[in-house]
Write a structure and sequence with these properties.
The protein is mainly alpha-helical. Helix content is 45%, strand content 4%. It binds protoporphyrin IX containing FE, 2-acetamido-2-deoxy-beta-D-glucopyranose (2 copies) and magnesium ion. InterPro entries: Chloroperoxidase, Chloroperoxidase-like_sf.
């Protein structure tokens, strides 16, 4: 008996020394606030952010983005300021995830996993039909910058064709490119500009970090410089795909400094 029990107990002890692969993930419930951002929803689901998605202060979000995906603090701080701009209260110091659904604040048309507001007010939930179009541009187990840009450009083309109120303004176009860039940065190989498709699908579909699939956060802090570089690579590819008439690239507004390529 002993000889069997000892290895079993040792194994159990070994396991409990490591965090659960689920990292405390729990689906959102009826009272929880969620957003059009799959990452912030995932962070609330895991408990890096309050599970109810409400009253998020600067340190909470900056710590969460560092702990979960190794974003550097200056970049996260800018995200936080952007988020505050969606709160309909003067001089707000905290935001809740549902504030982010405000149309054309940070939210924009032609999203990868949400229908345009013209089609649905439910910006806080994943939409399988929209994401099916996005995934259709990823034929291989590894997504390249070109394929990621094709999905982004494809959604712009579809939205432009089907939504009579379609708008991708001067903030929306770079935001769209940045959101494509940032999933490559968070889940992929920053130098190569590639990312495993199953990680990205798991992330979008479940609003969950892909620990179970062997993902680990970046070993180095991700900065705005990384975002600018990757957005530029995505922009170059999507401009080529959309053609001169619909340039989404950084050239869309020479006055708009690159540092404003936040989500
Ligand atoms: C405080 C930080 C952040 C804020 C306030 C924020 C906010 C938003 C908002 C409002 C959207 C909706 C835009 C739209 O599609 O209409 C969005 C989309 C998105 N965000 Fe975030 N975000 C943050 C950080 C991040 C980070 C660090 C990632 C890294 C993976 C990320 C990934 C995405 C992706 C991939 C989308 C596109 C979703 C889609 O097109 O369906 N976000 N974000
Ligand atoms: C918000 O801040 C501005 C500038 O500091 C100040 O003038 C204004 O009174 C504040 N508004 C409220 C409602 O606190
Ligand atoms: C939307 O379609 C119109 C007409 O085909 C085109 O001129 C315009 O550039 C398109 N906009 C985008 C952002 O693709
Ligand atoms: Mg949107």
């Amino acid at each position: 008996m002993r000889t069997i029990l000892v290895p079993v107990l040792t194994f159990a002890g070994f396991c409990s020394a490591f965090p659960e692969p689920s990292r405390g993930w729990r689906a959102s419930g009826p009272g929880d606030a969620r957003s059009p951002c799959p990452l912030l929803n995932a962070l609330a689901n895991h408990g890096y952010l309050p599970h109810d998605g409400r009253d998020i202060e600067r340190d909470t979000i900056v710590d969460a983005l560092e702990d979960a995906v190794n974003l550097d603090r200056p970049w996260s701080d800018i995200f936080f300021q952007e988020a505050l701009s969606t709160v309909p209260v003067a001089n707000a110091t905290r935001f809740s995830l549902h504030h982010l659904s405000q149309q054309n604040a940070i939210e924009h048309d032609a999203s990868l996993s949400r229908p345009d507001v013209f089609f649905s007010p439910h910006q806080d939930v994943f939409d399988p039909a929209v994401f099916a179009e996005t995934r259709s541009y990823w034929p291989d187990p590894v997504i390249t910058v070109r394929q990621a840009a094709a999905a982004c450009a494809g959604r712009v083309r579809t939205a432009n064709r089907t939504n009579p109120a379609f708008e991708l303004n001067r903030a929306g176009a770079p935001a769209s490119l940045a959101e494509t860039a940032v999933y490559i940065l968070a889940f992929g190989d920053v130098g190569a500009g590639t990312v495993r498709r199953e990680l990205v699908e798991h992330f979008f579909e479940n609003e969950r970090l892909p620990f179970e699939l062997g993902w680990e956060k970046s070993k180095f802090a991700l900065t705005q410089k990384h975002l600018e570089d990757m957005s530029g690579r995505v922009a170059a590819e999507s401009d080529a795909l959309l053609g001169e008439a619909a340039k989404m690239g950084i050239s869309i507004d020479a006055q708009r400094p690159l540092v404003r390529l936040e989500l």
